[in-house]
Amino acid sequence: MRARVAVMVAGVCAASMTVAARAHATVVLTVELEPQRAQVGEAVSVRYSVRLRDQGAVQIMPLNFGELQLMSDPSPPQVPMMWGTGFGFSMETSNEYIVRATRPGRYTITSGRAVDPRTNRVIAQAAPVTLIVGEAPSADGDASVTAEDPNASGDASAGPPADPDAPPTGDMTGAYFDMVGFYRVGVDRPRVYLGEQLTYRLWAYSASPDAGCEVSEEPTFPGFWNEAAFTPTRECARRWFSQQVSGRFMAVGLVRKYALFATQTGRQRFGAVTGTIEAMTGGMFRQVRRAESRTPPVEVEVIEPPSQGRPEGYVPGTIGPVVLEASADRVECPAGETVTLSVRARSEGSLSSAQLRFERNVDGARVRASEGRTQTEVNATGRYDAVRVMEILVVPERAGTITLGEATLPYWDPSAERYGVARVALPVIRASGEGAGRAGQGATQEDPARVLRGLGASPRLKAYSPLFSRPGAALGVSLLPALSAAGLFAVRAALRWRRRAMDARASATQNDPESLIAAAKAALGRDDKEACALAAKAISKAKALVSDAEVSASAAANERVRAANEALESVRFAGQGSAKSAVELSAQAVEALLEALQ
């Protein structure tokens, strides 16, 4: 009985193997377009699908995209290598690609084949597909396509201007090529003027747009002040492009972008960038390929504008063209009070060293310049503008109209290769009230002619005697150098001791608002300006303590601070008001700010 069962089982197995061996193996390849008609520059999706049934070993060949730009991984769909029959095995897999055309025409995608790797025999082949690319639709909505040969003559570069963040074409400079991936650096130009803006970009090239990158050594810019266009994140790149390199299209991502402003002349070398790039290739059975990359050094020559034709007052490093705007905190004020004029300068170059020129000897007013401050802002073109705000303090000394004339700022224009002068008219100030003359101006001074005294009629004369006629004079003269050196040493020691004492007193009060207020009160009567300066420093230190503690001062405290600052400014710059009153207001303001910390 057991022998009969064994024979039956063997027969069933043999029959099943025979049926499986005689089963018909199938391989189906399809290529689909979405859409089938497109415009120049429009992205088109291409789907390359494979369907297998009872097929052993098979190799899928890549597609031939012809003149189309391939903006994705060109690898064909991957299938497992299974030798022998599959006993009903079936599977489907596919890859998707993104392509685009640079000019109108008919583009055919071919070469979709499945090959037996043992015999190189073509098992299956995909039907070619055609993409029709036409011009953009006309204004009346007609979207008809003009079919042309993609190799026909014509301006393929016609269209919108090139993206400034796209990698440069032509020779592969600023990089060491690797087919898996590499980093590339580039600057706008290799030669700039002192203070001129230069853009530095770092791109990551990858064999696949599905890539990861990590910069392990950031670039360094000796001799340049830099502003980052964007903050690096975990994403590999901020923007992606496609570029043909060594006969194949690679994904290119913008990894870093800096605006640089030259601060030193001479040949400057930027530090190299090192990092890794991981490219994901393949279809269903994906694999990660990793590449280490290091960029070559980049050198930039920084030169100073020529001295010939340089306008008076030009400070090297001031780059234009410069646009000036002027405003005033008020145009009407009582005589003796301070008016603050703000002059705002804007340029694509550096303005950190810019010096404003204006008339300082104005009839009926005291005029002085305050310190300026510089910041950067992104303009409409994506480049940086340097914005410098400079203040002019004006104190009218009489009632009436005060005309201040104009302010000028000389600069160097790199694009025009010439010097220029920016100009702006300063606001006219109308002062009211009684005149406030300079201190001591009304005091009666003695006539210089009366100070002179005539020579005496009988001057007293003394007999002349030689220096060395007295005993011991020669010894004293010989010891004079040694005594002088000893005295000089003693004076220097005393000065050092006094400086250490002053430093100790300064360090004890420099970070304590209450001590600064006490020092300000102690300085009243002895030096009112020093007292006001110490009070202003106490307010600044108290505001810094409040800011560091991340608390908010009350509205009353802020009002006290404003009143104290106005009183201090009136005493320090206009010479008006009481220093004692200003210091008292400052003490109240400091006390109100410190209450916020409790």
Give an account of the 3D structure.
- This protein is α+β, with helices and mostly antiparallel strands and 598 residues long.
- Helix content is 22%, strand content 34%.
- It contains seven helices and 31 strands.
- It has helices at residues 2-22, 448-451, 473-509, 513-523, 528-548, 555-574, 579-595; strands at 26-34, 37-39, 44-53, 59-60, 69-70, 90-100, 105-109, 113-116, 121-125, 129-134, 181-187, 191-193, 197-206, 211-217, 224-228, 239-245, 248-262, 266-270, 274-281, 287-294, 298-303, 323-328, 332-334, 339-347, 365-369, 373-378, 384-396, 400-402, 406-413, 418-425, 429-432.
- The strands form nine sheets. Strands 11, 13, 15, 16 and 17 form a five-stranded antiparallel β-sheet that branches. Strands 22, 24, 25, 26 and 27 form a five-stranded antiparallel β-sheet that branches.
- The protein starts with a helix and ends with a helix.
Features:
single chain, 598 residues, alpha+beta, Immunoglobulin-like, five-stranded antiparallel beta sheet, 7 helices
Summarize the structure.
The chain is α+β, with helices and mostly antiparallel strands and 598 residues long. It has helices spanning 2-22, 448-451, 473-509, 513-523, 528-548, 555-574, 579-595, and strands at 26-34, 37-39, 44-53, 59-60, 69-70, 90-100, 105-109, 113-116, 121-125, 129-134, 181-187, 191-193, 197-206, 211-217, 224-228, 239-245, 248-262, 266-270, 274-281, 287-294, 298-303, 323-328, 332-334, 339-347, 365-369, 373-378, 384-396, 400-402, 406-413, 418-425, 429-432.
